[in-house]
Amino acid sequence: MNMAKNYEIVVATYNGAPFLSAQLDSLLPQLGLAGWITIRDDGSSDDTSSLIEDYARQYPAHIRVLSGAPSGSARDNFGLLLQNATADYVFCSDQDDVWLPDKVERLLRVMLEHEISLGPSTPLLVHSDLLVVNDNMHILANSLWRYQKLDPTWGNSFALLLTQNVVTGCAMLVNRALLEAALPVPIQAVMHDWWLALVACALGRVVAVPEPLVYYRQHGQNDVGAKRFNAHYILNRFTRLRSGEVTGLARLSLQAEAFAIRFDGTSSASTARMFAQLPRLPRWQRRLQIVHHGFWKVGFARNLGWLLWA
Questions:
Q1: 84, 130, 158, 200: least surrounded by Cβ within 10 Å?
Q2: Which InterPro entries does its entry note (predicted)?
Q3: pTM for this entry
């Protein structure tokens, strides 16, 4: 299969010096002749910037540095990277993970297979499972999907994806057609990966690769991390949801409303508009609409909490 089309790995950094070298060292051998890395730091106060400069000097043909004022969030940092990406295919990379040696080749192969069958103008997102590891790379779980009790097939149900994201940004690959449709990432988006998944689901396809291709490192500084889905997690989640510390319905509705405005006139926009109206409804009517339109989360326990607190 011809895999000569170019690809880009965008890396968003912020105070990631302890782990960045290990990640870059896992990316560089996978670049070949058609790939490169673009890094953007978001105003780190540690040694991240100097580390990036060292790598850029050492690998000038493979590493590009995107400069600019701090964006203030991982979502917006990735958004700027994606807007400045020029390759046919783009991977997103966190600063603290490690990629398995065949991740780039594996996801590119799946992407090209689907472009052959669906056409290169179809917005596509391909994503894999992940190995959950601690800060010392000790494996905590062989599958993030099982660890968090996620169902990746929900990535192709728009109503479900409005309610819960099942795509992890550092495990995804997107094509140029998706970037042209989805960018810029709006400020109402919860995260860049969730927004890209919604657009791919609505206008094209989300493809799940059921094998782990990333060591997903968990440590005290994770912006977004993996937590084991168990009774303790559920209780803590409910408590934080009530206090407004986690992503609640109001924030999800803003994301849905942004989608409805951007893609007005599509069937998915109509569904998004229904979801965006949920916070304005009385609680009993809101629950009826959740059931009627299938705005579910993955699993009984999540849905119990969703209906209790929505």
A1: 84
A2: Glyco_trans_2-like (IPR001173), Glycosyltransf_2 (IPR050834), Nucleotide-diphossugar_trans (IPR029044)
A3: 0.90
Q: Are residues 69 and 194 in the same domain?
A: yes
User: E strands within 218-303?
Assistant: none
| Weakest-pLDDT range from 102-106, 130-134, 235-239 | 235-239
Same domain, 161 and 303: no
Tokens, residue 41? 């730091």
Query: Which candidate, 100, 125, 108, 130, places its Cα nearest to that of 224?
Result: 130
Side chain identity, residue 125: L
pLDDT in tens, 208-256: 999 999 999 997 655 545 555 455 545 554 555 555 434 589 999 999 9
Whether 291 maps to a domain, the answer reads yes
**Amino acid sitting at position 223:** D
**Residue type (1 letter), 154:** W
Boundary of a domain, candidates 184, 217, 250:
217
Place of tokens 């893609």: 263
Last residue of a domain, one of 194, 217, 240: 217
Residue numbers of the domain that contains 59: 7-217
Question: Mean of the pLDDT values across residues 261-287?
Answer: 95
Matching residue, tokens 């790379």: 137
Helix (H, G, I), strand (E, B) or coil at 247: coil
Between CA 122 and CA 221 the distance in angstroms is: 37
Give the tens place of pLDDT for each residue, 109-123. 999 999 999 999 999
Identity at 237, one-letter amino acid code: R
CB of 210 closer than 8 Å to CB of 152: yes
Q: What is the DSSP letter of 241?
A: H
In a domain, 68, yes or no: yes
